[in-house]
Amino acid sequence: MTAPTTSVPAPGEKDGLPRTGTTGDTGDPFDRDVLPTPPGATAALLRSLLAPMKARVAVTTLVLLLQQAAVQAGPLLVAYAIDTAVPAFRGHDHGPLVAVAAGYLLCALASGALQWVFIVAAARVNQDVLLDLRGRIFRHAQALSVDFHERYTSGRLISRSTTDVESLRELLNEGLQELITVVLSFVSISAMLLWLDAGLGTVAVASFVPLYLLVRLYQRRVGRVYRERSTAIAAVIVKFVETMNGIRPVRAFRRERANDAAFAALNRRHERANGDALLEMARYVVGSRLVANTAVAAIVLWGAWRVTDGSLELGVLAAAVLYLRRLYDPIDRLGMFLNSYQSAAASLEKIAGLLAQTPSVPEPPAPRPLPPRRSALPGREVVFDGVRFAYRTGGEVLPRFSLTLPAGQTVAVVGSTGAGKSTLAKLLARFYDPSEGRVLLDGVDLRELAVPELRRGVVMVTQEAFLFSGTVAENIAIGRPEASREEIERAAKAIGAHDFISALPDGYDTDVRKRGGRISAGQRQLVAFARALLADPAVLILDEATSSLDVPGEQAVQRAMATVLRGRTAVVIAHRLSTVEIADRVLVMEHGRIVEDGTPSGLVAGTGRFAHLHRAWRDSLA
To answer: How much is the pLDDT for 5?
Structure first.
């Protein structure tokens, strides 16, 4: 076959894949903390979260309105008591004062009861919203394609589902009540003051103008600060997760001091952002209190002057002062709300940007089923038809090529690091879609297969052999959760894992703990092989899957693989040429091109690249 040339992957890349965890800004949004957010996506996300709870939100709002009505009735009762009830009491008419006292007590009790109802109802709504949001982030992150996770670090995903969701929780739990209280107070108190006395009401309303300007200035300044703070804490989390995940090389290469310095720099950046937020808050509080105290002093002095000349009743002045204090007291809390709001807005923007990401490997709109098998073999034919692949960051990894793997054939793919072997396997597993051309399974384009059917038909065993917390049996049965214990044990025996599993403290019920840390790397690989065998795929991809095994373990696995792979279509990517001996066919790749294609014996007998590699390997064994 003819294979055109291609560009060589950049240094530090594997098969053209950019390294993750970089901190430089290359123009790629994945290198920054904020993903592009479509216009209106944040508001749409908030609406979608609240839409299922419209009725509950309406009832909660009504309860708060009633509570505020009970609270705002107090100054009116005070005014009535001073101007009417007390003079009547002095005239031996006790009824008005008793009525005022009873009304005030009733308002206090109603306010407390309604406040309790509101807090409980709002808390339930808030928790349901946050539960829904966390679930959306988790489900969406799982649905996004492999290339997204290779470019967007897990630390940032953790920050989205923890720190950013927590910012929204603070807003929902505390901030919204403050905002609604301030708005209701503004409307109701303004109306009451204008009704009690037009002059006092006009002065009070006029004082809202400088307060509004202060709020707008604060909102603009603190918004920038909280976006920076959210980015800074995400960077701290990313560094922490990266360091803990790589603790072995950190200790092996004595990177503790360098990591301490890098972490300290990120920590200081977060500290500066927090300091800026506190400074903006202090400026706002000083300004708002200056305006509020000046307005109250002016209204009290003018009102007292009018009381002395008889143009204003004392009770009306007392009610006005009480209303003003109730209006200006929440101004400081409005600043706290704006803090929560800006923090939550920055966080919600980042969450909306994450949820707006679409999988680069989408589900087909009209899936096609696989046709009946063409032979009695469990394998299926694989065809790469005019396939070309390049990553979105640029640089062609696989130039256009065509390749057919007959059903039941085991094909070994060898080549130097960065040659494109793993990319070829990921295209077959549909972790990526080709930039051009098609990958066919028994004549059906992989893009037309429903993901569950594709995952049943094509299984990949990687070098990492990742195990989840849980029992050995649960990890083997991941591909077939409905499998019986007998089927699980049969798969383990076929792969040569039964003996070491039986020797574990609880056998197949032994918890392997986080990332399978309770068992060795070679044992984890054997469990991964048993998992693949139990899934019973038509196509099996082994991506350097024996690299974690010692020589005896590798020999045991190779004996089991002869049984596992029999009749299946298999692609075996390996650096160890001993693995190639089980293959029917060998592909040698260089710089994304297939430079040799033949049987192992035929290529060994030749003078090409594989023959040279094979002789070097034989010499190393000697």
So the answer is: 35
Rounded (5°) CA angle 479-482-484: 105
* Strand-by-strand arrangement of the 539-543 sheet: 458-461, 539-543, 569-573, 410-415, 585-590, 593-598
pLDDT in tens, 415-472: 888 888 888 998 998 988 999 999 999 999 999 998 888 888 888 887 677 788 888 8
Confidence class for position 372, pLDDT limits 50, 70, 90: confident
The DSSP letter of residue 17 is B
**What HEC string does 278-336 produce?**
HHHHHHHHHHHHHHHHHHHHHHHHHHHHHHHCCCCCHHHHHHHHHHHHHHHHHHHHHHH
pLDDT of residue 8: 33
Q: How far is CA 131 from CA 128, 140, 150, 588, in A?
A: 5, 14, 27, 50
Residue 548 CA, chain-centre distance (Å), reads 31
Across 18-27, 125-134, 251-260, 282-291, the highest mean pLDDT is recorded for 125-134
Give the type of residue at 96: P
CA distance 476 to 580: 26
pTM of the model: 0.66
Q: How far apart are CA 391 and CA 147, in angstroms?
A: 9
Task: Determine the distance from the C-alpha atom of residue 473 to the mean position of all C-alpha atoms in its chain, rounded to a whole number.
Answer: 29
Tokens describing residue 501: 């599993």
Please tell me the distance from the alpha carbon of residue 517 to that of residue 372, in angstroms, as a whole number.
41
SS3 253: coil
Please, which pLDDT band fits residue 177 given cuts at 50, 70 and 90? low
Element housing 28 (H / E) = none
pLDDT in tens, 278-300: 887 788 778 888 887 888 888 88
In the β-sheet with 396-405, what is the strand arrangement from edge to edge?
Answer: 396-405, 382-390, 436-441, 444-445
Tokens of 232: 């800074």
Question: How far is the CA of 123 from the CAs of 74, 129, 164, in angstroms?
Answer: 27, 10, 18
Sign of the torsion angle spanned by Cα atoms 602, 603, 607, 611: negative
pLDDT tens-digit series, residues 376-391: 677 899 999 999 998 7
Q: Please report, for the chain, how many H helices and E strands are present, in that order.
A: 23, 10
Q: Nearest-CA neighbor of 515 among 553, 465, 460? A: 465
Contact residues for 239 (Cβ-Cβ < 8 A; gap 6+): 155, 259, 262, 263, 266
Q: Pick from 65, 320, 112, 350: which is nearest to 196 by CA? A: 320
Burial class (CB in 10 A: 0-12, 13-18, 19+), 461: buried
Q: What is the rounded CA–CA span in Å between residue 165 and residue 45?
A: 13
Q: 311 is written with which tokens?
A: 């143009």
Under DSSP, is residue 100 helix (H, G, I), strand (E, B) or coil?
Answer: helix
> Which is it for the CA torsion 499, 505, 510, 514, positive or negative?
negative
CB-CB contact of 52 with 291 (8 Å): no
Query: At how many degrees (to 10) do helices 485-495 and 551-564 cross?
Result: 120
* DSSP designation for 389: E
Taking only the tens place, the pLDDT of each residue in 582-600 is: 888 999 998 889 999 998 8
Q: For residue range 71-113, what is the model confidence (pLDDT) as tens digits?
A: 777 777 777 777 787 788 777 777 888 888 888 899 889 988 9
